Amino acid sequence: MQRRTFLAGSLAGLSAGTVLPGLTGTANAAPAAAADEELLTLLTRFNEAQIPLVLGNYESTGDSVRTVARKARRLVSGYIWSRSRFHHDAALLTPLRFLVDKLESTQHDDGTYDVGNLHSPPDSAFAVQDFCTVYSLLEADGSPDTEAHRAVLARVIRKAGPALATGGVHTPNHRWEVSAALARTHHLFPDRRYAARIDDWLDEGIDATPDGIYSERSATYASEVTNPSLLTIAWLRHKPELLGFVRRNLEATLHLLEPNGEVDTIASRRQDQNRVREVWWYLTQFRELALHDRDGRFATVAKDIERRGTGELGDFLAEVLERPELAAVLPDPKAAPTDFVAEFPAHALARVRRGDRTATIFGGTDFHDIPVIASGLSTNPTFFKLRQGAAILDSVRLSPQFFSTGHFRSDGLRRTGSRTFRLGDEVKVPYHLPLPKRYRRKDGAYPLTLDGRFYAAMDFPHRPKQYRTLRTSVTVAESGDGFDLTFALDGSEVPFAIELCFRAGGTLSGVESLGAPGNYQLVEGTGAYAVGTDRIEFGPGNGATRVAMDPGERYTQLNGSLVPDGQRVYVTGRSPGRLTLRLRTSS
């Protein structure tokens, strides 16, 4: 009853244009403040656009429990919000009942759900967070027309709680998602087992590096999972010390932001290492820390997200209705950094920004410690990115044809000057000599072992070896309005190809088509890629030698591919030798 009274009062205050005191559960609670009317109008408009979409497909049979829960959350946000045109609209009640009944009918007897993974506590936790939010908002609203809906939700939440308190996880972020779901469940239906399990997970320590980036190095799992979960635990379990991890992550994100609202993901160990991620996911995180710390930089990012108006911003309405203090007017803006060289040593990553020109230099793949291709590892061979406004060079990669060992992946990153960095690697491939006599077998049944590239029944570890070696270094130097990339390869005589992949949508000039769609070669002189007045020039070409990009035997054995999407330009060469690729930008 206490929670219902609090939330009902908060909603009434928000509707009147004020917010109640404080960022609850934090050390520096802010005083009562006026509501940010621009934010409320924006979130209301976006939620109103979501609701007809839900009404049109709420009976979809293919929806996972997480999708069903999110649809219910969208309907409830509009239903309880007095400023919404869907406020207490009876047309929402039957679809909402269908959704909550589906949540109950698909729940296993043990309280979990199948979401790809079977009987999955962590995947269930993602949905339980939404269940609890929906239940809390309906309780605060108190409409008798939703009493039956609330009864179903209460049963579902109570049934899920013990499963989350006893079940396991798969990935680092799952610990915090499960803990946040338990914090919400415990707040609604107290059970000391839930609090104890949260403390068990937290006692393992938060997986954040001194750089402020979590161990999965993923913008996706920071923005969608870890940061929101830690903020929820801090709020409901009165653990303000968790805010420090979120703060450091957001400070790191300030230096990973692109001018168009994308977030650099090159260092990620998860699926976003090859995808575009956008900052709108961070809206309420930046707002909360801006309000808590009175940080104008975070306020600027939050307002930029609102002005940009991309993404599913309507999903944040539920958070603001649940915690109206998040809708307070932000502190005075302070410019977020736009002119810097920022290093992230724990990830061998550097970011350079000069206004609308940004670059990323990366030498921190996991490939040298764990030479396999697998989920949860950083294996992206892109080591440099550059953009000038809308002209985007999404990746620069290097592939020598050296025993099918694949792309160059730097073993670290070293700063060599105020504006220069060095990437480097040495690859050694063995030829195996006869086994020493003490390891020989008459039956020829030797163990299946790894050569480094492939497996064979050869007992490779006990064989003497002769090696062929390829040494590669790439020096990245900021130069005026661009960068010079100097490639030096020696140790073996091999052809190589440098691949520049520009984002689709621009115009290439000065290059020759290689016949295959999207493939070009810079044979001589200088090429250019332009989007409107934004332009990246690159060159010089190094002759007409044709060299294919070899992703390596780990990929080709299973018909895998590392061809990036976009317009790909190749510059070729042969080692030993030295080649400097000049990249210049203009707008």
Automatic annotation (TrEMBL):
InterPro entries: Chondroitin_lyas, TAT_signal. Coiled coil: none annotated. The keyword Transcription regulation does not apply. Gene3D superfamilies: Chondroitin AC/alginate lyase. The keyword Signal applies. Residues 1-29 form the signal peptide. It comes from the Bacteria. SUPFAM superfamilies: Chondroitin AC/alginate lyase. Keywords: Signal. This is Heparinase II/III-like protein. It comes from Kribbella lupini.
